[in-house]
Amino acid sequence: MGSSGAIKPEIKIYLLALAEFHNRRFFIFKNGPYLMFGCAASAQVKTSRETKGEFLSVAMAFCVGLMSAMYLCGGVSGAHLNPAVSLSFCIIGRLSWKKLLPYSISQVLGAYLGSAVAFLLYYDAIMDYNQGKLTVTGPNETASIFVTYPSEYLSLQGSFLDQVIGTATLLLCILPLDEKRNNPAPAGLLPVIVAAVVLGISLSMSSNCGAAINPARDFGPRLFTLTAGWGTEVFTCYNYWFWVPLVAPTLGAIVGTCIYLVFIQWHLPDPEAEPDTRITDILETKPWSAK
């Protein structure tokens, strides 16, 4: 800090990134946002063999966690929670490019810890479900509690396109939400609307490969499963498929942002000019009468 007590810009960037980190973290920050909610719900459904929930409950839990995270720290860092969203905001000028890397790293680390908390919460259930063996494939696999994997029928090209379309759809839906020249949503409802958009994508685009649409949401938990006992198979299985939810959402964010810019933002009307209240104009238009 300087003599005035102001925070240096380079320090402020990392403080904002820390807020992104906490957004994906766990119960110590009042609510368990995003990854803890979603992975815990997934663990509950999987280990109960769908007697205590189903696909819809997992999708809704992820969205409740997302909404909670946005309300929790949205005023500090923007609560992007997604490197693809941060990249999009850099492209359109809402976020400085120098913030992209620290934000992204923090998002991945937060996702890692959120997954760890869900694992600790359901450790006994997971171990009972798979007889103490942490496996990535097979009838009793548990890696998919935390990480997305492709369906057996899905080709590499199909899974890549799936993630590009899903992420592009996400950005097309959320970029106009606070555009004042369009029909902006009320600021207090932004987390609810974004959560509803993600829920819609989850309900309609999850069958192929889980609708990650977020590099941090997949890579952070994948790192966790690597270190927690599932081993390197979380990266090597399905012919090293792990790179798809890293690269494809990034490309999808660029595609969605470019579509929004070219077909929407560049065609919005300019803000209305303020009325000209110069004294000369007032005198010229005033119906003065001679006395």
Automatic annotation (TrEMBL):
It comes from the Eukaryota. The chain crosses the membrane at residues 55-79, 100-123, 189-213, 240-263. Its main location: membrane. It holds the Pfam family MIP. It is found in: Membrane. InterPro entries: Aquaporin-like, MIP, MIP/Aquaporin, MIP_CS. GO terms for cellular component: basolateral plasma membrane. It catalyses: urea(in) = urea(out); H2O(in) = H2O(out); glycerol(in) = glycerol(out). PROSITE patterns: MIP. GO terms for molecular function: glycerol channel activity; urea transmembrane transporter activity; water channel activity. Keywords: Membrane, Transmembrane, Transmembrane helix, Transport. The keyword Transmembrane helix applies. Gene3D superfamilies: Glycerol uptake facilitator protein (1.20.1080.10). It is a multi-pass membrane protein. Belongs to the MIP/aquaporin (TC 1.A.8) family. NCBIfam families: MIP. This is Aquaporin 10a.
